[in-house]
Amino acid sequence: MRRAGPDPSSVRLPGPWTHRAVSANGIRLHVAECDGGGPLVVLLHGFPEFWWSWRHQLVDLAERGFRAVAIDLRGYGDSDKPPRGYDLWTLAGDVAGLIRALGESRAHLVGHDWGGLIAWTVTALHPRLVRSLAVLGAPHPLAVRASVLRDLRGQGRASASYALGFQLPRWPERSLRADDGARVVRIMRAWAGPEWAASDDFAAATACYRRAIQVPGVVHCAMEYYRWAARSQLRAEGPRFAAAVARPTAVPVLQVHGALDPCLLVRTAAASRRWTGSGYEMRVQPATGHFPHQERPSETTALLTRFLGS
């Protein structure tokens, strides 16, 4: 008999934030909020994490006067896990609905990995809701698409090293749950810079992610993000989505990328410039892998606060 996983509410880790559920786009999203009284900043996590990956920025941004809200994306943590909706159209709708449900007309978006891809998409599809866009370890969706096809030995090989395996039925789910989520640690160590991967903070962080990935339904939902990304390229939906997000953004964009990121390469991130306007800035953090906000939290928060304040 399979052992039941942790209760979804177990991701509501204690701290100087408030946990609550918000209804948006037809589902219930769990958020953690630190309210500094100022403009709304929505923080969107990536794989294989949950809202807690923004623990440093939540507090620091609130102390600098922002209303910082980190969410569990659809399918993760204590948010709803419906059987469908893991395409970027719907995921962007979740964030757009959340901004409105929080009583705001606009927000600064900060996204990492899949959260960054979602943030790019919200900016393209719902531009009136976005004040600015900051992305970490997350090139523009069309930059990723083009690089996978044209840079076969670079981004193509990097993406294939993990994303191809995620297309298989059932096996990725079993492997990520096995041994109390031990594969999460292996994935994050392979993607992180060596300094953070050898630190006590990495051990403590991945212990939380191991537990969160075992919440019933999470690992399947996480795989559905990757499956949609691959399968949509073989359907009419792929070109339709590409056309929808092809217009350059009209808001300021800050792109933060780790120099050692092995899964989304610096040159892929730099190719995002094509889909931005005049207010674009890219910062490459040395000796940093795929998780700048966790590997170098003080430096990353300083970049964010300067950008958001400007």
Explain what this protein looks like in three dimensions.
With 310 residues, the protein is an alpha/beta fold. Helix content is 45%, strand content 16%. It has helices at residues 55-63, 88-101, 114-125, 141-150, 152-163, 171-191, 194-197, 200-213, 218-231, 237-244, 266-270, 292-295, 297-309, and strands at residues 18-24, 27-35, 40-44, 67-71, 107-112, 130-136, 253-258, 280-285. The chain has an 8-stranded mixed β-sheet with strand order 1-2-4-3-5-6-7-8, sandwiched between helices. Strand 7, helix 11 (266-270) and strand 8 (280-285) form a beta-alpha-beta unit. Helix 1 packs across helix 13 (297-309), helix 2 (88-101) crosses helix 3 and helix 4 (141-150) packs across helix 5 (152-163). The longest helix is centred in the middle third of the chain and has 21 residues, at 171-191. It starts with 17 loop residues before the first strand and ends with a helix. The mean pLDDT is 96.
Major sheet characteristics: 8 strands, mixed
Spell the H/E element sequence.
EEEHEHEHEHHHHHHHEHEHH
Summarize the amount of helix as a percent range: 40-55%
Q: If you compute it from the alpha carbons, what radius of gyration comes out, rounded to the nearest whole angstrom?
A: 18 Å
Helix count, DSSP H or I runs of 4 or more residues: 13
